[in-house]
Design a protein that fits this description.
With 379 residues, the protein is α/β, with parallel strands linked by helices. It has two domains: 184 residues, FAD/NAD(P)-binding domain (3-Layer(bba) Sandwich), CATH 3.50.50.60; 128 residues, FAD/NAD(P)-binding domain (3-Layer(bba) Sandwich), CATH 3.50.50.60. 30% of the residues lie in helices and 25% in strands. It has ten helices and 21 strands. The strands form seven sheets. Strands 5-2-1-9-19 form a five-stranded parallel sheet. A four-stranded parallel sheet has the order 13-12-11-17, with helices on one face. Strands 6-7-8 form a three-stranded antiparallel sheet. It is globular. The chain starts with a strand and ends with a helix. It holds the Pfam family Pyr_redox_2. InterPro entries: FAD/NAD-bd_sf, FAD/NAD-binding_dom, SQRD. One of its GO terms (molecular function) is oxidoreductase activity.
């Protein structure tokens, strides 16, 4: 009997899963024993980490986009028809267009989205780089900036956990190159009592901030932004004035997850090792959609996708589970416009950032170009 794998979400994780299964199960696809369907929200696939480079003029917008159908294996049935309801009891997904898709195995890869509107005044008073429109506006603001107070404000939860540190270091080099660093006061705020959620990363960042003259305020949980007064206020009672506010907005998962009763805030309760949705044996969760307390990053999505591919192929071909996810994450960290470091860790090994170097920065830039091979499952 033919089996159907349904993938909800067309970002990195879902795309890698689809392409990886096609690569390993060509015989089943040719015979009709397997069908792979993806439900996406857009005709285009975006390289989201590249948005960080747009405000600094280090990537062109066109480099961020590809036609999703060209990124996907041709054997994947791809529909731009977002899921409206996911019924894990009936093994079916209903779309916004009213179509119903049955499945034997479901992969939830619905991702995350920025929610600046959740903080009063943030949409009107802040800039960000987590979507294309925001990155464009920030690019314009940086080009017009002539000195003053810049605040980089971090809210939780958010994806790409090292991006707030990266933008701070890149801002330093950008302003220094323009001769504006001596006219600028740069302050970084973070919601807990250190500079990063990962303690070793926080310990590494603190002396780097001190060396560069970057100020910081921890235990800063954003309450509101006043675009008229140009101030940002924390729940702890602190009020900071700014000339330019760059924020990492709070994130939520997809609305369909909440509407379908699969989780809160768009995050699906997920087994940390099997990547099953809690309570299901035929529903896998990958990428930002999980509630696993590790980084919501591209590498996380990639490693989870690889494990999910192996398990789905093994279940379809052999009726057994293949392997577990060990929590592996690998992130390049830009430490300026010409240097970088990296962190890797898993459930048992903490991160340990090494000394920044130009070579690691070039590795990061090389990966920016190789991303499309990664999405196709070739890297």
């Amino acid at each position: 009997m033919s089996k159907t794998i349904l993938i909800v979400g067309g970002g990195l994780a879902g795309t890698i899963v689809a392409n990886g299964i096609c690569r390993q199960m060509g015989a089943e696809l040719r015979s009709g024993a397997l069908n792979i369907t993806m439900l996406g929200t857009s005709e285009t696939h975006m390289y989201q980490p590249g948005l960080l480079y747009i405000p600094f003029g280090r990537m062109r917008e066109a480099e961020l986009f590809r036609d999703q159908r060209k990124v996907l294996d041709k054997r994947v049935n791809f529909f731009v028809d977002p899921a409206k309801n996911i019924d894990v009891e009936k093994n079916q997904v209903t779309t916004e267009a009213g179509r119903t898709f049955k499945y034997d195995y479901l992969v939830l890869a619905t991702g995350s989205r920025i929610m600046p509107q959740n903080v009063p005044g943030m949409s009107e008073g802040a800039h960000w780089f987590y979507d294309l429109d925001g990155a464009r506006k920030l690019r314009k603001a940086l080009n017009e900036f002539q000195g003053g107070k810049i605040i980089v404000n971090v809210n939780a939860p958010h994806k790409c956990p090292v991006a707030p540190l990266e933008v701070v270091f890149m801002l330093h080099d950008f302003l220094k190159a323009k001769g504006l660093w001596d006219k600028t006061e740069l302050t970084y705020t973070y919601p807990i009592g250190r500079l990063h959620a990962l303690e070793p990363v926080a310990h590494w960042a603190k002396p780097e901030f001190e060396r560069l003259g970057i100020k910081s305020e921890t235990f800063f949980n954003t309450e509101s932004v006043d675009p008229e007064k140009k101030t940002i206020t924390s729940m702890e009672g602190s009020e900071l004035p700014y000339d330019l506010l760059i924020t990492v907005p709070p994130h939520q998962g997809a609305q369909v997850i909440d509407d379908s009763g699969l989780g809160k805030g768009g995050w699906v309760p997920t087994n940390t090792k099997t990547l099953h949705r809690d309570g299901s044996t035929n529903v896998f969760v990958v990428g930002d959609t999980t509630n696993i307390p590790i980084s919501k990053a591209g590498s996380t999505a990639h490693f989870e996708a690889d494990v999910t591919i192996d398990n789905l192929v093994s279940l379809c071909q052999e009726g057994t589970f293949a392997r577990e996810y060990d929590g592996k994450v690998f992130c390049f960290v830009e430490t300026g416009l010409g240097s970088g470091t990296y962190v890797w860790f898993n459930y048992t090994t903490p991160p340990n950032p090494g000394p920044p170097s130009q070579m690691i920065h070039w590795f990061k830039l090389a990966y920016n170009r190789l991303y499309w091979l990664s999405a196709r499952g070739l890297l």
